[in-house]
Amino acid sequence: MAYKVPFIDPKLHYQNLKAEIDGAIQDCLCNGDLIYRHQLREFEKDLAEFVGVKYAVGLNSGYHALLFALMGIGVGPGDEVITVAHTFVATVSAIIHCGATPILIDVAPDYNIDADRIEAAITPRTKALLPVHLNGRVAAMDQIMSIARRHRISVVEDAAQALGATFNGQMAGSMGAAGCFSFYPFKVLGGFGDGGSLTTNDPQVAQMASRLRYNGEDRETGEYHYHGQTALLDNVQAAVLSVKLRHLPVWLKHRRGVAERYRRGLSGINNLALPHFPETGQWDIFQNYVIRTRARDRLREYLREAGVETLVHWPKPMWEHRGLGLKNPGLPETEAICREVISLPMSAETTFEQVDYTTGQIREFFSRRGPDRS
Ligand SMILES: Cc1ncc(COP(=O)(O)O)c(C=O)c1O
Fold first, then answer.
1. In the chain, at which residue ranges do the beta strands (DSSP E only) sit?
2. Does the residue 4 lie in any domain?
3. What is the pLDDT of residues 301-335, one digit of tens each?
């Protein structure tokens, strides 16, 4: 079905950048630059500079950034890592694949880890905190970093949804021992397939990730240091991402403008919660514009019929997926969120007209239902 307002529009995105992107791809293909060439090194340099860290290591997914970051700080069997269940499954899978145990705690109303609950979850086995900067909003990093310092544990930032978001002027992915980014096409910096990067100021973490992604090999010496993986960011993807990174600051401002337009259109509707939280240090970049209502499923259907494409991140708590083998940690806020959230169209191409149409449809939905029904 062709939506009147698509969630994102990858074809239009490409058309708008066609000349630049085609040039970058042709440059790679015509010169045979396919694996670990100057385009990848240049992208890593630009990304590190953008995030404000010494090193960026290009990988083939955000999942691998998480896995290698955790391995890089020494997480292994017997360790515990504290994180949230209201995240993409890769956050938790990376902990499991290190042989460690994820300790899942609840989130605050802004969908990020509830920092007030962290200390109660710390045990002698806790090796790291893994906050997720969800929907483009950085978690309460001042509190998180000070807890980590007090307990002498590391912090790995899952910044997959937060490239360009800041906390007290510091970029997501620059505050912990490592930051983890995803370039999945829906992300603020999306490739033409999977991609990711680890960012860090720690030369040892950077070196380990650089080797792990290349089956454990040190490219300079040819020595294999570990049993690694094949997890390098493709050179062509890096070339495309370099083009897009130059546009990112404008896109992020646009997203904030779109969010503000949604706010204007949706303020004052009973029983509808909007994602505008006090920016107590944060500068949110709205990877997703997530609204919350108990009438979520009916609203979603109404919008679908009106031609507005929406997504739900995520409809079922992670522990209810039996195959993941997770115990129910009893997280009421996470459970409620799964029933109530819906993400509205949001991208660099989303127009104010599309936002106005969407907010108009949402208003109509609620006015038809009457003011006092939840
Ligand atoms: C919060 C979060 N963490 C981790 C990931 C994993 O990234 P990737 O899909 O690139 O492996 C994603 C991607 O959707 C994400 O949203």
1. 55-59, 80-84, 101-105, 126-129, 154-158, 166-167, 170-171, 178-182, 196-200, 282-283, 289-292, 341-344
2. no
3. 999 999 999 999 999 999 999 999 999 999 999 99
